[in-house]
Description:
Shape: globular
Radius of gyration: 28 Å
CATH topology of the domain at 195-379: DHBP synthase
Distance between the termini: 62 Å
CATH architecture of the domain at 195-379: Alpha-Beta Complex
Structural class: alpha/beta
Helix content: 25-40%
CATH superfamily of the domain at 195-379: DHBP synthase
Largest sheet: 11 strands, mixed
Strand order of the largest sheet: 7-6-14-8-9-13-10-12-11-15-16
CATH class of the domain at 195-379: Alpha Beta
Amino acid sequence: xxxxxxxxxxxxxxxxxxxxxxxxxxxxxxxxxxxxxxxxxxxxxxxxxxxxxxxxxxxxxxxxxxxxxxxxxxxxxxxxxxxxxxxxxxxxxxxxxxxxxxxxxxxxxxxxxxxxxxxxxxxxxxxxxxxxxxxxxxxxxxxxxxxxxxxxxxxxxxxxxxxxxxxxxxxxxxxxxxxxxxxxxxxxxxxxxxxxxxxxxxxxxxxxxxxxxxxxxxxxxxxxxxxxxxxxxxxxxxxxxxxxxxxxxxxxxxxxxxxxxxxxxxxxxxxxxxxxxxxxxxxxxxxxxxxxxxxxxxxxxxxxxxxxxxxxxxxxxxxxxxxxxxxxxxxxxxxxxxxxxxxxxxxxxxxxxxxxxxxxxxxxxxxxxxxxxxxxxxxxxxxxxxxxxxxxxxxxxxxxxxxxxxxxxxxxxxxxxxxxxxxxxxxxxxxxxxxxxxxxxxxxxxxxxxxxxxxxxxxxxxxxxxxxxxxxxxxxxxxxxxxxxxxxxxxxxxxxxxxxxxxxxxxxxxxxxxxxxxxxxxxxxxxxxxxxxxxxxxxxxxxxxxxxxxxxxxxxxxxxxxxxxxxxxxxxxxxxxxxxxxxxxxxxxxxxxxxxxxxxxxxxxxxxxxxxxxxxxxxxxxxxxxxxxxxxxxxxxxxxxxxxxxxxxxxxxxxxxxxxxxxxxxxxxxxxxxxxxxxxxxxxxxxxxxxxxxxxxxxxxxxxxxxxxxxxxxxxxxxxxxxxxxxxxxxxxxxxxxxxxxxxxxxxxxxxxxxxxxxxxxxxxxxxxxxxxxxxx
Length: 777
């Protein structure tokens, strides 16, 4: 690659780029630009970014840096650049070299990138040597985070290391004019990843044509296939076959929770639904998330939509993001269900031995390959509010984690935040960089706890991270809290406790750059539960943030937290508990005589924990309007209530809200439910009242902001996953209130770890003063 012309020693300049600069094609770009300009020097990946040394004058080096930045690879994100004079060296041509100075990593870890258009074209191109090769990649697409074993990003430090390049691939890899020049994940059928298809009887095949034929036969017969994707195994079955979907639900033990659908192409999807520009942009982006789309009449004709998303108005849809799925669906030519291959409540299966042991009890055939997954990930999920077009991330995982471009920590010491219990994540700050893990699910089960520990250990190993402070939720029974105590003891470092909803508030403030401004902000946090500072269960909170202090100034009316977590599973308990005492008799239909007698006695002498959770108010409203005393998954009742309200709004527009007066900075949830029931008794329909309930919550938030005389309102918590509520908030906010929502994080508990990190980093409320320097029982 190098020129044979030796040049005389001139000034040597060192250029350093930080950010997402590895695994995105930066070294090939720099090499090509340098050669085109006749420059001499080297470029390499190192643990702290991209390093370039060139022989040049100061002006020429500065111009070269500007040219690099102007032509930066599309997937890169450069957060910082430096250029400085270095010790004189004489270079012979320009080369790509490997770093030989071990140092602690200080760079973004690249996420996994969806199949690019060039590789898709080659995959289907007759005569191309990678035609029908389901593991085709290049410098701009393919797995990254899921296969990295060590930093910097080099093939030898990934699970691609066992696959030695054949002569043709090696020639491409070393050809400056080839688009796979220095592509670390490149391979071909001769030297690359191999598939194995296994049947329940133990028979197996590795022949590509035979594999495809068996997969198609299985899907066409309405059966299930388990396929190893980028972040783990997925279960696939025909999305138009109601019987097949029912069978999948039965085997997966997932009776009602919605299932995502993978369409073979954007063109086919556009025949079924009119996409907005933003929806199309995300569907075809390198992230390639699941995007929630409205269920249309055409979808109902082509797909078994009621089996896919029972009682809902939206369907999760994605396009083939891995070449393996593109290869299969291009041949199948119909949409398929694509859901994580796990039993309900368990983490995604990602290891071959796990799959062979467990998945043939669920799927009819199993397809795996010999490229190991180091970091399992579920698909990211996105909803876009219909009117405001605000993106709402419901799950931040594949394609996004663990990069964090929107927050630079103030403190230099390494910190670890442990997150919450449900929709868990962890966050790390180290040497001016922030990392937020992928969605980790609920850590209530042993398997989920094990995966959390393994994922945390792997990221800490990648970053050589040894925390000097641990931050966690106040709830002593959370798995994350217990583990935080263990880690703090192990590392002999302080343990900081941050209240759940204050962490939510800090997260949305930080994401919108509102932490260090002079004006006060009203942080509204509404969800299902979280241990409050007063020992009760919070979930409908209003905080004023000003001058680095966060004060709880208002909340929704507390009501008995009857039977604790059981309430989250049974909306009937929320309605019974939240209604005024004189109206509780309307709930009797949903209880046995024994239950009714017991619960009435409990409520009459109740001295236990109370809750302000708006999530439970949604459950209560759904119980009444949908006649839904129980729910089969978290958020089930609230999602169906939103679907019913949306049905009304689409036909009639946003209705008038119930007028809820503020009493001593408290919003009356019980009165709202009472007004709802009364309105139905005089003729209002359930869909209208579902919409009025949403409008009332929205108007009350804006009413409280005006009452408190705060113009800036930042919203977080699981309730704000509701895109209809977000659209209504924009209507009720008018011109006098400025609204802020999460942009790259989910409003649900996934953001809690980041909020905990921010709380400690900024020392909000002087949280360090209460740090537990010695961890005790």
